[in-house]
Amino acid sequence: MGPGGAIWVVVLVLVAWVVERLGPPRSHTRGAGIAERPRVIRDGRLAGGDIDSDTYDRLGATLEQGGGSSARRGPCN
Cβ neighbours of residue 11 under 8 Å, at least 6 residues apart? Predict the structure, then answer.
């Protein structure tokens, strides 16, 4: 591989890096364990305006009690 080939490798690596950086963030699921995932989802729903603070608190209490299925029964929108 000559100097021209090495330049193309560098260009392709840079393009791949830029595409990775411009893509959607994946950190919210990468570090979250199975036990943390419902809390991360709840935080995101509050931040996005999908739920109000009362619903956020109610879901938090349900999660602390260990009930996952009862949180789905109540109105959360």
Answer: none
